[in-house]
Each structure stands twice: as C-alpha cells, then as structure tokens.
Amino acid sequence: MRLETILWAGVAVYFAVIGVIYMSIGGDPAGTSVLLTATGLGGLVAGWTWDWGRRHGERPEDRGDTDAEDSTGIVGVYPTESLRPVALAVGLTAVFLGVPIGSWMSMVGLAIVASQVLLLVRDLDT
Amino acid sequence: MTTTDPPRHTGDDQPRIFAVDEFVDSEHRGTLPRSVAGWLTTTDHKALGVAYIVTSLVFLAIGGVLAGIIRAELARPGVQVVSEQTYNGVFTIHGSVMVFLFAVPFGFGLANYLLPLQIGAPDLAFPRLNAFSYWLYVIGGAVMLLGFLSDGGAAAFGWFAYPPLSGESGSPGLGADLWIISVILTGTSGTLTAVNVIATVTMMRTPGMTLFRMPILTWNLYITSFLVLLTFPVLSGALLMLEADRQFQTAFYDPVRGGSPILWQHLFWFFGHPEVYIVALPFFGVVSEIVPVFSRKPIFGYKGLVLATLAIGALSAAVWAHHMFVTGEVEVSFFALTSFLIAVPTGVKVFNWIGTMWGGSLSFEAPMKFVLGFLVTFVGGGITGVMLASPTIDFHLSDSYFVVAHFHYVMGGTVVFAVFAALYFWWPKVTGRMLSERLASWHFWLLMVGFNTTFLFQHVLGREGMPRRVVDYEPIDSYERWNLVSSIGFVILAASMVPFLVAVVRSLRSPPTEGADPWEANSLEWATTSPPPHHNFTWLPPIRSERPVFDLRWIDHEGVGVSGVGEAWQARQGHDARWLPLHRYSQQPEHEPRAESRPVVRDPLDGEERR
Amino acid sequence: MEKIDAGSMRTPTLPPPLTDQAESVERAWNVFLWIGYGVLALVVVLVLWVVVRYRRRDDRLPRQTHYNIPIEITYTAIPLLIVFGLFAVTFVTVRAIEDLDDEPDQVVEVVGYQWSWEFTYPDAGVTIVDVEDDEDPVLVLPASSTVRFDLESADVIHSFWITAFRFKRDMIPGSASSFRVDIGDTTGWFPNTGVCAEFCGLDHARMQFSVRILPPDEFDAWLAAQPTGRPVTGLADIGDPT
Q1: Superfamily grouping for domain B36-509
Q2: What is the ipTM score, two decimals?
Q3: In this complex, do B331 and A21 lie within 8 Å of one another by their Cβ atoms?
Q4: For residue B3, what pLDDT band results from cuts at 50, 70 and 90?
C-alpha cells in the first residue's frame, strides 16, 4: 500500500499548498474553502491506505514477482442479482421529485428507501 | 530500453508465437442477461457496462437531435424553426444531455466493463452499489427530459444554470426543478461509481499487477474518479442550495436579499472545469490503449504519461475561474497561469502518443483511424484553449462562438472520435463479432468532413462578434455565410452515423466467432473469451509489465517481452504441467437466481488438465 | 481623424480596434494566433510523417522502445517555456486593460436589463434608451478620450460587449463593476458592435446596441444639446448616422 499512500498523501499536500496560495491572493472564500477541504479528501484516503498497509503488510499485487497462484482461496464475495439497486434508485428519485411536485411524493419515496434499506441490511452477509 | 527485431513467421524449429485462444475455451463465451427481470436485477459489471454505453449512446442521439434543431434554426437569420423560448430550452438540454448524460456516463461505462478485466478482477468492488449508480443515472436522465413535457417547457437557462436567471423569478416552472434534481441524481450516481473504481483499483488487482503495470486506461479512470470525488459533491451542494432558493425561499444566490450570484459561479466552475477533464481523461486512456496495439510498440513514456495525467488532474482543480475572467471579480493572473500550465502535460501526452507511433509498424483499422481523427481535432481544440486561457484574449472571445468552437473541438476529439475508436476497438471483446472496416471508413471520413465543416468556421463567427446562445443573428454577410456552412456541415456529420448504425446491425446479426484476442493487443481483457465469462477469467497469464498479453505472445522469443516473464512461465510449467484455473465457480451455469452472495475461489490446482 | 463610412448593413463585421486597449489585444492575438498555427502545423506534420513513414510493410516487430528521457524532458520543457512566454504577454497586457483611471474624461453609467440597455451620462444628466421593439439604443462616445463605464444589472446577469473594444464585462446584479478605455482617433458609426454576451433569457438575442464615436468637440456639442428631463431615444436624436 506504500504507493497508494504516497499518491493520496500527495493529493493532500498539493491542495494544502495551492489552497494557501489561493487564500492569500484569491480574495474568494468559496474557492479557498473547497481547496483547503480537499486536503481532507486526500488525507482521508491516505490515512486509510497507510493504516491498512501497516496492519496487513505487503500483498501479492504490490510485488512484481508474483503470479496467480499467490492469491489462492476466497478472492472476494460478490453479490449476485438484486432488486435493491433499482428499487432504491426509484425511491431516492421520488424523494427528490417531491420537493417541487408535492410532499406526498417524497413520503412515498421515503417509504421505498426505508424498506429497501431494511432489505439490504437483511441481505448483507459479510 | 529497446529490443532487436525478431522474425514474424515461424516454422517448426522456430520459437512459437503464443495465442490466448490456446488457453481459454471460446466455446463457453459469456452472455448478457436475457430477460427484463435479468436486466433490472443484474449486478454484473459487464452487463452494467453495456447498459451504460447503450444508454449513453441513446442520449447522444437525443442530444444530436437537439443539435439539429439548433443548426436548423441558425442556418438562416430570422426565427423560423422553433419559438425563442423553445430554442432556449433546446440548447440548454443539448448541452446538459451531452455533458451529463452522454460524455461522462460513457466513460463510466468503459470503467464498468473494462476496469475489472484490465486488472484481473472478477467484478467491481461493490456490485450492488454499481447497479444503483446505473439506475440513478437512467432515471435521473429521464427526469431531465421530462421537462419538455411540463407546462413551462424544459429548463432554459443554459447548462451552467446561472442564477438569478435560474432562480425562482428568473425561471419559474417545473422544468428548471426537474433539471436541478436530474443533475443531483446523476451526480450522486457518478460519485458512487468513483468510489467503486477507487476501491477496485486499490484492493482488487491480481498478483503481479503493481500500480505501474496497470494499463494507462485504468490509471486514467482512477484519476478521473478522484476528480469526480472532488467535484461532484460540490455541484450537488450548490444545486441543493439553488433548489432551496427556488422552493424554500432561502437567499444563497439572490442578490436582492443579500445572496451572491458569483458564489454559484465559483461552486459551479470548481466542478465544471474538472468536469471536462473527467470527460476527457478516460478517452486519453482509450487512445493510450489503441495506439500501442496498432503501432506494435509499447506506449512511449508510460511513467511520463502517468505523471502527466496526475498533473492534469491536479491542475484542473485550480483553473476554474478562467470561466469567470469577464466578471471582473476574480484574480485573473492566478487562473491564467494555472490554465496555461495545464496545457503542458496535455501536450506531453500528445507527444507520447506520437512517440509511440514513431518507429512503429502502423496499421489503420477503424480504431486507429478514429484515434488519428481524435489527435488532430483535440490538438486544434487545445490550441484555442490556450488562447482562451489568456484574459487579454478571453475578454473579447468569452461567451462568443469562438468558445463554442473551442469546446466542440476538444469535446469532438474526445467524445466523438475517441468514443468511436473505443467502440470499434472493444466491440469484438464485448460482442464476439467485428464491425465492418468498409463501413467504418465511410463513417470516419464523413465524420471528419462533417465535424470540421460544422465547427471550424465558428471560430470566425466568434472573432467577428457573434455571441453564443442566440436564437437569431443580424443579417450580416459573414454571420449568414458561416452559419449556413456550419449547418450544412451538421447534415454531413449526422449522415456519418448511418454507416455506423448499419455496421452495428449487420454485426449483431452475425454469429459471435471472434477469439480472445482479434487485434493482437496488450492488456488483460484480451486474455479471456469474447465476451468474457461470468467473473471474467478462467486463466491469467503471468504479469510482468503493462502488456501481459503481448509478453505472453512473444514468450518464446528472447528479449521481446520484458524480463521476468520467461521465468514466471517456467515456474508454472513446474506445477505438474497443469494450468492454473481460476474462479472455479465461473464455470457454473450463468445467472442462476440466488438470494445470497457467493464466494469466488481461486484454486491452485484442479483435476482439469488443459493445454 | 479617420472616419468609418458605415454604408449599408454589409459593413465588415468586426470593426477595427477603436481603443488603445483593443489594439493591445489585437497585438496579443496575433502572437497567440501565429504560435497556435505553428503548434498545429507541427503536430499535423508529425502525424502525417509518422503515418507515411511507419506504415506497416511487413510482419516484423519493430524496435520496442519504452521511453527516452532526454526526448521526454525536451518536449516538456519547450512547451513550458512557450506558455511562460504567453503568460508574460498576458500579464503585461491585462494590467493595462484592468487599470482604472482616476480621472476619466467621460463617465458612462450602463444599466442592463431584460432585454435592453440604458446609457446615462451622469454629469450631463442625459439618459439614452431604446425605442421598444424598433431600434437599438445608441451609445455615443467621444474620440481621443478616456471613458470609464460603470455597469450594473437590474435583474439577471448580462454582459456588456463592444466588439470594437475587444472587451466585455459581465453585469452581475448586486455588484457594480467598472472598466475604462482610451478611445483612439477613429470616429464613425458602428451598428453591430454592441451585444449582450451572457444568456439572460427570452430575448437575449435581441439585446444589441450601436456605438457612435464623435470627435470630442462634436461630442460635447451633442451632449449639451440633449434633453435632460426625459430619456433620449433613437437615431433621430443623434442625427444622420452616415
């Protein structure tokens, strides 16, 4: 995870630098705020990859000399067909559309979203 | 680092040239869902990738029809084809559809289909989240178009939706709200896809696939996803504030009550400029995949390309107010400098692509033709971009047809030519069939002529003083002449789509007979059947460079592929001469309905013996 | 002083640069244009060369060159130098364009609204408007003078673009904005030079104005002769444009 950490830490450093430069000459609080908060975006991912790398060490895909046999066993768990995604999308759309159209639609949408989230939690098996 | 030229043709005593078809079973090709229920519930990245691409091409057609209305109206002075209000909605939705519903989702479609294949993964990291992204996109896109059916018509404030025009009093009417909600939904869709891509690239590469052995397309999709994470939420936030102004009487952007229209512009363009790189970067990746294959050389300067793309991504977040030079309220020198700087890594990429072709053995099948079309159009657009980066020049040319010409040239290079390059290149992988080269030639040349005729002289119109977003213009000689030429060009451009559509229909009517690697290509998607089976791979070559399939092809030849591949190959032979089948469950019947998730298991040795 | 004869509608669309700032923009434009042509020509020539010279002739695999650091550095450094040069040109010219003069010869207040313009000469108390649906308003200016424009919008964002000045400035409601130009010696009538350049709704395409540049003494006379109690409209009050 070393390279990933370096990349995302680089993102954080870049935005810190450019954010400070822009803060001093830009005269624009909006742009300054987004640039400086972007430091957090890079830092969040860099922190996670650093911590994960620290706890799990080197992986076969971090090394240049490994082959497929080095990752035997369960590679991952992948959900198969599911109705949750399309139903959730309909529900979330209804929530938003209710704002101009009428709160009844948002209520319907919320009901759909809530039921789908419950079903999703039930479906989770990891 | 270079190698000597080996001979191509082999006899019995010559070193072998390996083909992937020897190791994968082309009798068991993958399939797409076959029923409506199958499509509604699929979480397979390949099915969703196809869905994204087909949907985005439908939106391309819709955007194209809207463009046709624009060019029909502007062919002659006077308002003849549609009313003024309708026209304003037409160009607003044209731009919005092309950017939000075609260009970006097509890139996500490529990410969906190709990224797991290119890194040797069975799917994206979060398949249900992926499906959720797709449905949000389709439904959100439909919501935008529903505006045409509403009382006041579709949103008619331009694709940047500047308040106060987009506010409650400027644009009363449901169409505007539908537009805002649509962009929030599709933006959320994109953000979630970006999360998926970053998680997949970080956690699901196959052994040996270090970051610097990933294909350039994967790198570009990775960096694009970072830009999406950075900017889509900003747009969603700004849109929520706009909708609040419209529906809940807040005053974020309303100057009468202390709000700031300039605030919208900063937030919108902080998203809006990286957005165009979000559109472009995947297609730079497409070009970086195609050029090496048709030049029979590795991509020139791989690390330089990665660095250049990182620089483009970084700089793109610091140039936004070059869209605001003419407000007089931004620090023009800072943004002029960053805008000039971003031209440098972009230019480096162009020279890397030329460097790949230099000294190569070039062939010009359809993907390569369209890549060359991309190169010329994109560079033209890039040059006018450098002009616009200068406030001195931009004070005159901003908001004129010069800008319209500029962005159509950069967009034309990327989402027109490179889209078709991608379609022609990966068509055999996705469908198991080829597209007709003859029809592709007609498509390409008509597009070249049509595209340039439509947009080249719009530079002149802008210089001469024609503003953008106008339903009509003064009956002045040069305005009439160049608008008419542009509209004629559009007819040719539209006509160029016909050979493509014919080729698609003909191809889909023929049986799938292509093997795993019809182009003799480089990356891992060509190491499996066409189409790939469920969970993608039953076998993988050893990975010692960014071109594992190329390295495999020349494994018997000294010094062609990178060092280390030969040793890895030998090590495999030591395992009782049995191949390493992967993903045992992928040989199960496809799409059995199951309620729960199933593990994907990699077995080191199996009873099967395959040679 | 050079007088431009407008003649009929078939005037050259882009008037010559009428201000010092516009001339500086034109000089910068020429630099950018010719460098742009040069870069485009270079890329086109390289692509054509490569396409002809390295066309596939046989099945041999070419030399598999992966990188060449000196070449890559060169084609990074040279564009970097070029853009620094372009930035320098920009930096110098922009400061001159954005500079506000403390004491302009004339101030004009411009109000943009959906969908026309109002020009006020504050010291003289004269306001020019348009004749609704009939004629565009006319902006009358003195030659060989410094003029400051104070812009504001009455409703949505508009943009004040005089193509002959090679300059535009957005008018954002809630913020006033100013810029200044040094008008040169050229006098004349420029009917198509003023447009609104920021989409502002239904009749955005109709929001034009004309510009009339008079010699300074004629301008003073004209301004003094305008009525102050009511808005001034149309060509009739400004005299025969030709």
Answers
A1: Cytochrome c oxidase-like, subunit I domain (1.20.210.10)
A2: 0.96
A3: no
A4: very low
